[in-house]
Design a protein that fits this description.
The complex is a heterodimer of chains A (about 650) and B (about 325). Chain A has 22 helices and 23 strands. With about 650 residues, chain A is α/β, with parallel strands linked by helices. Chain A has an 8-stranded mixed sheet with strand order 6-5-4-1-3-2-16-7, sandwiched between helices. Chain A has a 6-stranded parallel sheet with strand order 11-8-12-13-15-14, sandwiched between helices. A 6-stranded mixed sheet of chain A has the order 18-20-19-21-22-23, with helices on both faces. With about 325 residues, chain B is of the alpha/beta class. The longest helix of chain B has 16 residues. The chains are: A alpha/beta (about 650), B alpha/beta (about 325).
Chain lengths: ~650, ~325
């Protein structure tokens, strides 16, 4: 784990650490936590590294790499026995309660922890001595002295500039401590600092200095990290990047957004890559693009995307809860006018401003019910970073096939976690545009945009098609798209729209809507959606090894919910367990409402932090041992 | 074959109140399209919510009747995805300058090549005559329980401040002047707005047709009414910026004119500056293929549905093993 004040390079250090491990053939999963603040407040990255694929966060920290005193204090209890803490020698003498950035609730909790342990450390050094009793080793490094040592070589005397490299010093020391090969680390430094040769060379020297210092000074740390060569093609990225790539391959050509955490990263990444190459037939290429529009608000964002979608371009917007609240009106218009607009919805701690930079999973009901009236919509929920990619592309297919808004739910835990993934395979994606007509299809015929059909889907013509016209309105309308208030037409048109939901429910195959894991004959079934997927899978694997048979239904399409499937699978289970990141168990409620099947156990969490596999394991184990209360609330996370 | 006025009409019954200024505006729009011989399928008319919003249903062209105040975002989305379209955004004063004021201002920052028409009658007609954002302070139109407690916004000054590059005013009952002004607005290379003064015979009993034509003030010399509206072009006023260094001077002149109201109300072109790069040109600088291969024209898959967008370069930058 790497932690420090925001603005001190926690992100870049974690990225370098992660990439360096990836380059060495290791699998990496990194969880990022930060405050809604630009500079000064605490942030950290928790990185898991393994020979096998890693899919979730855990409670334990083996090596805490602290850029400041606060990081040591905040995370000291998480460090496992025989783990280590790398910190600044100067931090040792810092008086714990003198750290200026403490929030009162933290101090209260911290004092309680000290009381329960019966200890009274005054300084960070005292605290580390207490941890030593738990076999936690301290590796103090004189950051400033090391920086001053290298100052003449790199030709930079200003301390304010030198201290920007504390992150890389700490990183170098970490790798030295675990004896990791320096070459992949240097490669990672070069990649992260890109085209800035001076910065690269400064940082490489700092890295080298700390690496050698740790190798020579520190002995006896149990953990070693070794490279394992691999031929498998892997990429290292966060959820927002995966969704962006999915949108591009899925043909998105216009995306709108208003700045909001954590959704904005996706749009910015798209804008950086706005110029596209299109592979035409016979190996020819054409220039294409995706147009990214930063709008004045989210109201504009969704409506601009709808305006673009009318022309036949695949269009989307990306936002988080407060932004989606503003989009609701536009969502209803798109539903009524049958516009295939895609909303990528990054959930975060809610309601209101909530926890702007923290995890949350409490907007499923909102996505399902947003906007007045009734209209079809499709809701997708990705459970991991790979699914963010494939679902982002698939969302456009559903939107165009059923000519209705699609809401793709992602959450902060996926948005900002980094993972090494097998390289994405665009050939798994097929573009399906539904009943999209061209000029030739309608030439000489009378075209009615809202023709009443059996499936509810009316053939769609792009706005601007030569020799044609049509009308759209947010009012109820007749088949031509003109306003009507006639009750008969109202009944038929309403029904036509709603029928698309039944058509989608019939047509979309089960494997696109749920993932089933585990034992078909298991007596306990877990149901979940979104980012808890990884934690549930890891927990289940541990329980399987202990002899507990379980199955897991990951709902990837909460709407339309595959009702019969849920009834069939859950009907067999003696213990039906819901795991989700909110207070009211929203998915469990939706399942109960639509199928009559009630969950027996609830594992819930809303503290703004993603679920760790350890806490999910503990909760599920209690259930399997029949020792669990009906409702368990998880609280792990700093 | 040349397009005629009837080619721009639809069979939909026009349900405005008798004497409504909207009739004049509808005719002027259709006449402008005939004059310019713009094929119906090349034109997309967007509207918001209110009396004005029915305009697209009465014009035979692509017609998108959107949400209250949200006309511009929809219109911009379509225009930028398909820049060949001639996009006209029709808005009300309540719809466009009240609930949609944020979009009106921010659209000014973009100078997109589209035309904005604002029906300005000082009231919210369809909800029975409440004060709109342009109604002046202290006026009490007939369905207001109390005189208007808000100051009216000055749409011309607001458009100037926001960055519109063509700003004009016209009058719903001077259909010829209005048609010519709309034509100029459509022909303008950049973002154009026309504020259209429009009596509401049902709810605005102050700024009536008679008030605009000055029937309350008969000239002692001629014995005829002295109209409140006068044409800027008749006074030698020229709001067109022809050189970059005269932009500020013309801006100030337009702002001064914008504040004339009451006894003398100018109509015509207040300001026009085609030297400002359009949004489409700004995009093209970053994306050279944008105008010939805009979002709506790009193919995204081959005939079998295989995606054709290459993400190889992006994946390569993210790649960490298996080189």
């Amino acid at each position: 784990m790497a932690g420090g004040p925001q603005g001190s390079g926690v992100d870049s250090a974690a990225n370098i650490f992660g990439r360096a491990c990836c380059y060495g053939g290791l699998h990496v999963y990194g969880k990022r936590e930060y405050h809604s603040n630009i500079k000064g407040l605490h942030s950290y990255f928790h990185i898991r590294v393994s020979k096998k694929e890693v899919i979730a966060d855990v409670d334990r920290v083996d090596l805490l790499c602290a850029f400041d005193a606060e990081t040591v204090v905040r995370h000291i209890w998480e460090v496992a026995p025989s783990g280590g803490v790398i910190c600044d020698t100067e931090a040792l003498s810092t008086r714990i309660f003198d750290v200026p950035t403490w929030m009162p609730p933290f101090i209260e909790e911290f004092k309680k922890a000290l009381d329960s342990k019966g200890i009274m450390p005054v300084t960070v050094g005292d605290l580390l001595k207490e941890a030593q009793k738990n076999n936690v080793h301290t590796y103090a490094i004189p950051y400033i002295d090391l920086l001053k040592d290298i100052a003449p070589e790199i030709g930079e005397e200003k301390l304010s500039k030198l201290t920007r490299m504390i992150n890389v010093l700490a990183l170098g020391a970490s790798f030295g401590l675990v004896g990791y090969d320096k070459e992949p680390v240097e490669k990672a430094v070069r990649t992260i600092f890109g085209d800035r040769p001076k910065i690269i060379s400064m940082n490489l020297q700092a890295l080298d200095k700390a690496y050698e210092y740790a190798t020579q000074k520190f002995k006896g740390f149990d953990f070693r990290l070794e490279t394992i060569p691999t031929d498998e093609k892997r990429i290292f990225l966060q959820g927002t990047q995966a969704a962006a790539l999915g949108k591009l391959i899925g043909g998105c050509r216009l995306q709108t957004y208003y700045p909001i955490t954590p959704a904005a990263d996706e749009s910015e990444y798209l804008e950086e890559n706005e110029r596209l190459q299109l592979e035409q037939s016979a190996g020819k290429q054409a220039d294409g693009s995706i147009l990214i529009m930063q709008t004045e608000d989210e109201i504009s964002a969704i409506n601009m995307a709808s305006g673009a979608a009318l022309t036949g371009a695949r269009a989307a917007t990306a936002t988080s809860g407060p932004g989606f609240s503003l989009m609701v009106e536009g969502l209803g218009w798109a539903g009524n006018s049958e516009v295939p607009v895609v909303v990528t919805y990054y959930q975060r701690g809610a309601p209101a401003t909530g926890l702007p930079t923290r995890h949350g999973q409490s907007d499923l009901r909102f996505a399902l019910h947003a906007a007045h009236g009734e209209f079809p919509r499709i809701i997708l929920s990705s459970g991991d970073i790979e699914e963010c990619f494939y679902d982002a592309a698939q969302a456009f297919n559903y939107a165009e096939r059923y000519q209705t808004p699609v809401i793709h739910l992602i959450d902060k835990a996926l948005a900002n976690s980094n993972k090494s993934c097998r390289i994405f395979d665009p050939s798994l994606i097929k573009i399906e545009r539904g009943q999209l007509l061209t000029e030739n299809d309608v030439q000489g015929k009378k075209y009615k945009r809202y023709q009443i059909t059996e499936s509810g889907v009316s053939p769609r013509l792009p706005l601007g098609t030569p020799n044609m016209v049509f009308w759209n309105t947010g009012d109820e309308h007749d088949e031509t798209g003109h306003i009507t208030e006639e009750p008969m037409m109202r009944t038929r048109m309403y029904e036509k729209r709603m029928k698309k939901m039944e058509t989608a429910d019939k047509e979309i195959p089960m494997h696109e809507r749920v993932n089933f894991f585990g034992d078909l004959n298991a007596s306990a079934t877990v149901v979940s959606w979104g980012s808890p997927k990884g934690a549930v899978l890891e927990a289940m694997e541990r329980l399987r090894q202990e002899g507990y048979k379980m199955s897991f239904v990951q709902v990837r399409m909460p709407h339309p919910l595959p009702k019969e499937y849920m009834v069939e699978v859950l009907g067999k289970a003696e213990r039906k367990i819901i795991v989700e990141g909110n207070y009211t168990a929203q998915l469990a409620g939706i399942i109960a409402e639509q199928t009559g099947v009630n969950m027996d156990y609830f594992v819930l969490k809303w503290n703004g932090r993603p679920m760790s596999s350890d806490e999910v394991y503990e909760a599920l184990k209690l259930i399997m041992q029949d020792k669990a209360p009906k409702r368990q609330v998880l609280t792990y996370g700093t | 074959m040349a397009l005629k006025l009837t080619d721009y009409r639809t069979p939909v019954f026009v349900d405005w109140c008798p004497g409504c200024g909207d009739f004049g505006i509808l005719s002027a729009v259709q006449m402008a399209l005939v004059d310019m011989q713009l094929a119906p399928s090349r034109v997309a008319i967007f509207s918001g919510i209110g009396c004005h919003a029915k305009v697209p249903h009465f014009v035979n062209a692509y017609g998108i009747h959107t949400l209250h105040g949200r006309t511009l975002p929809f219109a911009i989305g379509a225009k930028l995805a398909q820049p060949d379209l001639e996009v006209i955004a029709v808005m009300g004063d309540g719809d466009g300058l009240g609930i949609g004021a944020g979009h009106f201002v921010n659209t000014g920052r973009r100078n997109i090549d589209l035309t904005v028409l604002i029906h300005d009658n000082g009231v919210y007609g369809l909800t029975k005559g409440q004060a709109s954002p342009t109604l002046k302070l202290g006026l009490r139109t007939k369905s207001l329980p109390k005189p208007n407690i808000n100051e009216g916004v000055n749409p011309i000054a607001l458009a100037l401040a926001a960055g519109y590059t063509f700003i004009a005013r016209s009058y719903a009952y001077d259909v010829r002047h209005l048609k010519d002004t709309i034509k100029k607005a459509i022909q303008h290379h950049g973002l154009a707005v026309v504020i259209i003064q429009q009596p509401c015979p049902t709810y605005n009993d102050i700024n009536t047709k008679e008030w605009y034509s000055g029937e309350d003030r008969i000239s002692p010399e001629t014995g005829k009414p002295v109209p409140r509206l006068y044409k800027l072009e008749d006074t030698g006023y020229d709001g067109v910026v022809r050189k970059a260094d005269e932009a500020f001077e013309k801006y100030v002149a337009a702002l001064t004119k914008a504040h004339e109201w009451g006894d003398k109300i100018p109509i015509g072109v207040f300001y026009q500056n085609e030297l400002v790069p359009t949004y489409e040109e700004r995009i093209s600088k970053r994306i050279p293929s944008y105008l010939h291969n805009p979002p709506a024209k790009q193919s995204i898959s081959d005939s079998e549905g295989k995606p054709i967008t290459s993400i190889q370069e992006m994946l390569k930058r993210l790649q960490v093993t298996g080189f």
